[in-house]
Amino acid sequence: MKWFLQKMRLYSEALSGLDDPRGEHLLNLEARVRHLESEIARLESRLDEFPVAPNRQDAFGKDA
User: Fold this and answer.
1) pTM (whole model) above 0.85
2) Does the pLDDT of residue 6 top 80, yes or no?
3) pLDDT exceeds cutoff 90 at 2
4) Lower Cβ count inside 10 Å, N or C end of the chain?
5) For residues 64 and 56, is the Cβ–Cβ distance under 8 A?
6) 26 in Cβ contact with 19 (< 8 Å)
7) DSSP assignment, residue 18?
8) CA 50, 53, 54 angle in degrees (round to 5)?
9) How large is the greatest C-alpha to C-alpha distance in the chain, in angstroms?
10) CA distances (Å), 19 to each of 25, 28, 29, in order?
11) Could you read off the pLDDT of 13-53 as tens digits, one per residue?
């Protein structure tokens, strides 16, 4: 039994080192989404810094 457990441990260590392209792709996508969400939050927090464009009627009169 001890021999079997040692062999299984060797196989599990070997399998844990294999590349997982689908998993890596998903992790990269998750990181990108987190980055984009934080960028959106940062930009939304800066909206108050910019003046609001006037309405067309305010800029050109009520006939425009």
Assistant:
1) no
2) yes
3) no
4) N
5) yes
6) no
7) S
8) 140
9) 92
10) 11, 14, 17
11) 777 766 677 778 888 999 999 999 999 999 989 887 877 76
